[in-house]
Each structure stands twice: as C-alpha cells, then as structure tokens.
Design a protein that fits this description.
about 260 residues, Rossmann fold
Length: about 260
C-alpha cells in the first residue's frame, strides 16, 4: 500500500530501542530517508543495518541526548544541512524508572521528564520552524497507556506521557494551519525487555501494598502487542491516508485502557 511517504526525510528519536527501530524500518520500507537519533551509536548502527538488510534506503545516524538542548539543536541543524528539510519527526523515547512513590528521588523524576517530555519539546521546537517554512510536517509522539491510566510503579513515566498528550494536542491546534499534523500513539504492553521490567516492578510494588485495579499486562485482546503493530499505526498517522487526523492520542493497547 502506498502511503505517500516515498522520499520524505524522517527523523526518528529513540531509534536504538525496540519501538524506534521498528518504526524506522517501517518508514524506510515506505521509501523514507531515515535519520536515526539516540544516545548510543552501536544501537543506532544495528537499526541502520537492519534497514539496509530489509532493502530500505541507507539510514543516516545522528547521535544525540534529548535531555540536552545543545545536543538536540545540533542534531536538527545537522539534519537540515545534510538533507535540506525535515518532513517527519517521530519521538520514541522510553525510560525504565520504576519504584514506590515514596522511594523515588527527585533525580528519578527529573531524568524521566528531561529525557521524554522535555526531550520531545526540544525536538518539536527544533523542527517546527523548518516545517512551517516548507508548509509541510508530520509528527507522531510515542507516549504510553500510562498517560491516561497510570500504573503505581511507573508514575514518573506516566506523568511524562500525560504531559506529552497535552503538548501534542496544544501544538496540533496551533500548527494545523501550516499543513503540519501532530498526533501521539499510546502503546499498551509490547513484547520487549523493557515491558518485562515494567511488569516485574509493578508486581513488586503491588505486593508491597500499592493499589492496582488492573495488571498492566492483562488486556482484553489476550496478548502483548508487537513493535511492528505500533510501527504500522505510526506509519498510517504520518501518511496522506490520515490527512484529516491531527491532535489525537491513538491508543494501540489491545483494548487495555479502561475508558471510552
């Protein structure tokens, strides 16, 4: 299926992780030129190799730490210099910070908020002027189900995801007139090492007395999702086929969110 993405310049942050790598691969399969950003070059090189082996266009690697404004600004400037434009931005950062609320430190909270919410804010601030100038932009922020339905052991991440939802909706309203669509995808439990840590930590906190009305890994569809299923949803939202969709928080969670 042609999504109208061939030749687009797509910047994917968190591209060394399971979701980021899968999203980068899906976009490369659609003909995008992918630019991979993350904190560690080896993981980005692994994603780039997988894209090449899958027949995608060669990926560009631009390491950066989203918790540092100078890193983000440098990366955006480098991409614009190399490719002349940034058509797509996908933010896909996830940090594994778990624990009982009373035991989490200020640094625990600060690390998550800086890397995810503030990191997303920095990349958005870096690309939006160029997208306005070119009258084209497609953005998807990966959040998480916890932004709507928090789990006791993962409150820093859940809070960051909720903030990402507000940022996504607010900016989508401002920039729609510039032909820039901004959405978020909120995954539920996904097959990955990170999710196994979430489940184990949540079980431990619940056993210690925290109240959880629903285990995070139990969903009506009866299984965990696959990274490719998140990538498929992201690809659709970025495509011309989703031309009337902006400002949405799209749950991809097996029906696990307890709300309408």
């Amino acid at each position: 299926m042609d999504y109208g993405l061939d030749g687009k310049i797509a910047w994917i942050t968190g591209a060394g992780g399971a979701l980021g790598a899968s999203i980068a691969g899906a976009l490369a399969a659609q003909g995008c030129v992918t630019v991979l950003t993350g904190r560690t070059r080896p993981s980005l090189e692994q994603t780039a190799r997988a894209i090449g082996e899958g027949g995608g266009k060669p990926a560009d690697i631009v390491p950066a730490d989203l918790s540092r404004r100078d890193d983000v600004d440098r990366a955006a400037a480098q991409i614009l210099q190399r490719h002349g434009r940034i058509d797509i931005l996908v933010n896909s950062v996830a940090l594994s910070t778990f624990g009982d609320f009373l035991e989490l430190t200020d640094d625990d909270w600060e690390t998550v908020l800086q890397a995810k919410f503030m990191g997303y804010m920095r990349t958005l601030r870096a690309v939006l002027p160029a997208m306005v100038k070119q009258r084209y932009g497609r953005i998807v922020n990966i959040s998480g189900r916890g932004g709507r339905q928090p789990t006791p052991a993962h409150l820093p991440g859940c809070s960051a995801n909720a903030a990402v939802h507000v940022l996504t909706k607010g900016l989508s309203d401002i920039y729609a007139k510039h032909n820039i669509r901004i959405n978020a995808v909120a995954p539920g439990p996904i097959e990955s090492e990170r999710f196994d840590k979430i489940a184990a930590s949540t079980d431990a906190v619940t056993a210690g007395g925290a109240v959880s009305t629903r285990a995070p890994h139990i969903v009506p569809i009866g299984r965990k999702g696959l990274p490719q299923e998140i990538a498929d949803a992201v690809t659709y939202l970025l495509s011309d086929r989703a031309g009337y969709i902006t400002g949405t928080i799209q749950a991809v969670d097996g029906g696990g969110t307890v709300s309408i």
